[in-house]
From TrEMBL:
InterPro entries: HemC, Porphobilin_deaminase_N, Porphobilinogen_deaminase_C, Porphobilinogen_deaminase_C_sf. Residues 8-218 form the Porphobilinogen deaminase N-terminal domain. It comes from Dreissena polymorpha. GO terms for cellular component: cytoplasm. It is an enzyme of class 2 (transferase). One of its GO terms (biological process) is heme biosynthetic process. Residues 232-285 form the Porphobilinogen deaminase C-terminal domain. Its cofactor is dipyrromethane. GO terms for molecular function: hydroxymethylbilane synthase activity. Pfam families: Porphobil_deam, Porphobil_deamC. This is hydroxymethylbilane synthase. The keyword Ion transport does not apply.
Length: 372
């Protein structure tokens, strides 16, 4: 029988995508550590329960993560697997990102209504309706396709496919290619968008594992699957977003290039309607000789990510690339675009709250009427 000290409790949302991601990490860890036993504990998050509002209109950054983090802090689970793009750039200081797993596709993909089979976005008629609740996707694509209408679509991927295929509302929807592939829906991908067409979200396509900051045992397990190139790119992207104080509330996008000798980050800030945009690129050379990996980091985290087995000097450079690119943008019109977008989103959050309150009042009234 397995000794209880080798049992690791893993928290996960119940959605099919969350479970696929959790099992990918567990299977890899099992392969490397056959003596460990992993037990999955599933839970529901606020984000799972709010299905009628766009994410950006709910007004909390940790919608899909908070309940899982509370379970971590309470010791009910030992680690939690996330899509890194859903993990805020600032997390509780009792928690860390113990590893970033090798990135899958970072790009967005188009899924067409069956009646448009074989078409690309540019083949769709004027006034086509595109389903997405990502401000980033809507802003960028409305620049390329000014006649298209971008409509909110929520729910898990299964629900969205059903809405696309069965409601005659949407001509196409936009989703992350990584999620589609993980769910086995590759065959529905009509087109993968390049960075020229639609730059991706910070850390899109990368999974991350969150654990308690002081949990040596779990951190050691995770350090074996920490993927250097992915971590370096994601540290740069997250440092960029962190400095901009963005989140999914504003249209911010990135594109990262990493070679053996250079890290290049392109970042963009868009107005909500996509009419204004500022892009800039910043790069730094990487040291050829890996520095002493034992260099003391004094527990320094890089946008909440532990360096683990990765040379901290590389992590520092990545963090600088992100922060400096953000500073370059903040010195331009981008600062105003960003401030305006944040204000607009904050207003949308308030309006959404008011709408929901009215809805509650209406429902209560109706309840009273039927009760009579
Ligand atoms: C965040 C956004 C979306 C998710 C906003 C954005 C998409 C929202 C929507 C921050 N998180 O990308 O601009 O379309 O309603 C999410 C997905 C994945 C992780 C699904 C998706 C899977 C891919 C991955 C939702 N989070 O983007 O289609 O691991 O990156």
């Amino acid at each position: 029988m397995a000794s209880t000290t080798n049992v690791v409790k893993v928290g996960s949302r119940k959605s099919q995508l969350a479970l696929v991601q959790t099992n990918t990490i567990i299977n890899k860890l099992k392969e490397l550590n056959p003596e460990y036993e992993f037990v999955v504990v599933t839970m529901t998050t606020t984000g799972d329960n709010i299905l009628d509002s766009a994410l950006s209109k709910i007004g909390a950054k940790d919608l899909f993560t908070r309940e899982l983090e509370l379970a971590l802090e309470a010791g009910e689970v030992d680690f939690v697997v996330h899509s890194l793009k859903d993990l805020p750039t600032r997390i509780a200081d009792t928690l860390v990102i113990g590893c970033v797993y090798k990135r899958d596709s970072e790009f967005d993909a188009v899924v067409m209504h069956p009646k448009h089979k074989g078409k690309k976005l540019e083949d769709l008629p004027e006034n086509s309706v595109i389903g997405t609740s990502s401000l980033r996707r809507a802003a960028q694509l409305s620049r390329k396709f000014p006649t298209f209408k971008f409509e909110n679509i929520r729910g898990n991927l299964n629900t969205r496919f059903k809405k696309l295929d069965e409601d005659e509302k949407y001509d196409a929807i936009i989703l992350a290619e990584a999620g589609l592939v993980r769910m086995g829906w590759d065959d529905r991908i009509a087109q993968v968008l390049t960075s020229d067409e639609c730059m991706y979200a910070v850390s899109q396509g990368a999974m991350a594992v969150e654990c308690r900051a002081g949990d040596r045992k779990t951190l050691t397990l995770l350090s074996d699957i920490h993927h250097q190139d992915t971590a370096i790119a994601c540290i740069a992207e997250r440092a960029f977003l962190r400095r901009l104080e963005g989140g999914c509330s504003v249209p911010v996008c990135v594109s990262t290039k990493l070679s053996k000798t250079k890290l290049t980050l392109t970042g963009g800030v868009f107005s909500i309607d996509g009419k204004q945009c500022v892009l800039d690129t910043h790069s730094k050379d990487l040291p050829e000789e890996p520095a002493n990996k034992k260099m003391a980091t004094n527990g320094h985290l890089f946008a909440a990510i532990v360096p683990g087995n990765i040379d901290p000097a590389l992590c520092h450079i990545a963090e600088e690339v992100g922060t400096e690119l953000a500073n370059l943008l903040l010195a331009t019109e981008a600062a105003n675009i960003l401030a305006e977008a944040k204000e607009q989103t904050a207003r949308a959050v308030m309006e959404e709250k008011a709408r929901k309150e009215r809805e509650m009042v209406e429902k209560t009234k109706q309840g009273e009427v039927t009760a009579e």
